[in-house]
Amino acid sequence: MKIVETGIGKWKKGNQFYKLAPSAGQTLAEMRAEAEAAGYALVTPTALGKAAMLKKCEIASARYDAEFGGFTDPNSGLFVRTDERTRSLLTAAKLRAQANAAYLVENWKTADGSFITLDAPTIIALEFAVHDFIEAQFAKEAALVAQIDSATTIEEVNATEW
User: Fold this and answer.
1) pLDDT digits (tens, 9 = 90+) for 68-100
2) Do 71 and 16 have their domain in common?
């Protein structure tokens, strides 16, 4: 058996739903037996449960878009990309800046295509700001998932917005 997707599906373990599929050469009956032995229960979600699963997927997608969409650093006014490559470059620059207070990135390319110089304190501050921004996106998602989990009606679930 293999997990195809989490957050949606007809198999439940704990408070999480999963979409399961047979492994290569495995029959559905064999997959079901393996899943049940591993503690998964086959359930048919209620209308509220389905709405909650779909809303959680919507919220996760919105978090992903926000996480990778970038933000304007309030201290420098600089728009900072937050894709994984930029985060990696900024983290590497921060490590060098922490080791050498005179370290500079002389050609940091900004979102508008211009190049600027970043000094060590700015590099360190930007990396911390990016990390804080990303953590805030996950915190927001967690709070919204908790709100969805506590909803007692489909209307309450559907009212949950990013």
Assistant:
1) 999 999 999 999 999 999 999 999 999 999 999
2) no
Return the residue matching tokens 């922490």. 98
Asked whether residue 90 falls in the same domain as residue 56, the answer is: yes
Residues 143 and 119 in one domain: yes
- Mean predicted confidence (pLDDT) in 128-141: 98
Q: Which residue in 57, 43, 35, 34 sits closest to 12, CA to CA?
A: 43
Count of the separate structural domains present in the chain? 2
pTM: 0.77
Beta-carbon contacts of 6 under 8 Å, excluding residues fewer than 6 positions away, are: 16, 17, 18, 19
Nearest to 87 by CA among 70, 105, 66: 70
What average pLDDT does range 2-31 have in this prediction?
85
Residues 6 or more apart whose CB falls under 8 angstroms from that of 55 comprise 148, 157, 158, 160
Looking at the structure, do residues 89 and 133 belong to the same domain, yes or no?
yes
